Amino acid sequence: MPQDIEFTVPIESRVSPELDRARQRHLAWARSCGLVRSDEALRRYAFSRVADSAAHGFPDAVGEDLDLCFDLLGWFFLFDDQFDARDGRTDDAIAVCQDLVDLLRWPKSAATNAPPVVAAFADCWRRMSRGGSEQWRRRTVHDWVDYLAGWPTKLADRAHGVLPDPAAHLRARRRTIGVRPLLALAERVGHYEVPLLAWHSTHLEGMRIAACDAIIAMNEIHSLEKDRAGGYPNLVLSLVRHCGLPPAEALERVRETAHRSVGSFLELRAGLPQLEQALGAGPMPELARYADAHAAWIRGYHDWGQAAPRYTATGDHPGDLGLENLVARRPN
Prior knowledge:
With 332 residues, the chain is mainly α. The chain has helices spanning 19-32, 39-48, 53-57, 63-82, 90-105, 116-129, 134-159, 166-176, 179-190, 196-199, 202-222, 224-230, 235-243, 247-270, 272-279, 285-307, 309-312.
């Protein structure tokens, strides 16, 4: 079973001490926002524990900072599953992506009858952007918009029956995996900002790509059975289809991608002093904290994904969360 596959991740395992408290508060928030509206939806959502990934990915966050992380991670998974729905909501989903882009660019544009996923995101974005500099806000909006723009591509490929080749699949997943906005969130809840010139460097971009690819590779293996059952694209399945690899070899190829990406990240992390020296701006403690955020997410996803009910669930507790159409607009 894919969750039994071992990964080598030489990064310390950590988790927020407030996981249990934040989980209970988050469930109440998700219900109040209309993200989970029925008792059955709440039961399935609580079982999935998808938002628990926040406590692993942001192990130093506590209080309101951890609450924000839980809410945003819960939103991520519920939003994601709307695009795996088979009930003809494609037009709704594309319209919601545009609503969210408009909200990011023009915060006052949010409609009073906004769908739950828009209203909930508006609440998260208001809290996430509070106190951030204009530079941080601009680059974070860019990351969010790029994330949102990746989802209509997924829908278009599905409509045309496309199973992307491995390289195309990986490029698409780098957009929709959501790691970049979460690294911006790490700055927000860590109460620091990476200096702009350093943030734009090839060195830090390499760290972001390595973290993305490590998490993508682990996720593709964890979700393989779920994706195969639902007919969704998956890197393992793409290697089988396009490269003619036996399933076991394709699985091992993706596992090697995870290990290679973790190694690349660790090398880049060790080279941060050279980046500081090259920029000539003196010590930048924010860079070490930013690297720690990457490490926390790589290890945190690993620890959460190994036992996540989302990927072990069958029968009475399916992994998909989309019980209700969360993207349909509310009536006026």
